[in-house]
Amino acid sequence: MNIIIWILYGYLLLFFHVFTHELGHYMMGRFIVNIPKENIRIRLFHNPPHVALRAQNKDWIKPNDEKGRFVQTYFTYDPEGKHSFLFIMGGFILQSVIFLIAAFSIYYFIKNITLANFIIGGSLFFNFVYIFADLAFYHWKRTPSGDTSSSLQFAPVKTVLFIFFLLLSYVVLYLYIANFTLL
After folding, report:
1. Model confidence over 117-142: pLDDT tens digits?
2. Given CB 3.0 to 4.6 Å as the disulfide criterion, which of 17, 53, 90, 168 pairs with 24?
């Protein structure tokens, strides 16, 4: 019975992980890039989940649009691309802030080390899968398909540093919490 509960926790963690990731893109689009709310939408139950932008012809465009219309539509709101890195990495930013704070709060206030490290470990695993699947697909197809491969196109050093410190933040908190279990 206990294993079933942990599997359910895993699915809930995955769902909230995907939701907060897409919400991060949405929030960066709305509040940093200033995309009007009627022109940006979270499509959580599409394959893959994504944030869509509405083109001038009123079509909803997904990020992996093969004709490049998503990028064209994005640049109508941010012509110089000044906020493009934040928009692309907004999913990682929000999900990391929320999950790391949640895990630390569970550890610090509730004293549930197992659940805290489950959240951190699960989130770290999801990030690894997302990042490296994106990079593998990019290597195979030779076209960007996700956040990491897209941002590598225009900001390779910034992207590598961002991903390194993102993953490092999970590892540091995981080790910090785990270290206290040994005392």
Report:
1. 989 998 999 999 999 999 999 999 88
2. 90
Q: Which two tokens stand for residue 183?
A: 């005392």
CB atoms within 10 A of CB 72: 14
Report residue 45 as tokens: 């139950």
Interior/surface letters 116-149, b for 16+ CB within 10 angstroms, e for the rest: bbbbbbbbbebbeebbeebbebbeeeeebbbbbb
What's the CA gap between 117 and 140, in Å, rounded? 34
- Taking a C-beta distance cutoff of 8 angstroms, is the pair 61, 70 a contact? yes
Q: How far apart are CA 47 and CA 43, in angstroms?
A: 9
The Cα 42–Cα 91 span in angstroms is: 12
Judged against a pLDDT cut of 90, whether residue 56 lies above it is answered with no
Range of the domain at 92: 2-181
Overall pTM > 0.70: yes
pLDDT tens-digit series, residues 137-165: 999 988 888 899 999 989 999 999 999 99
When divided into structural domains, the chain yields a total of 1
Instruction: Give the helix ranges, DSSP H, for the chain.
Output: 2-31, 69-77, 84-105, 113-141, 147-154, 156-181
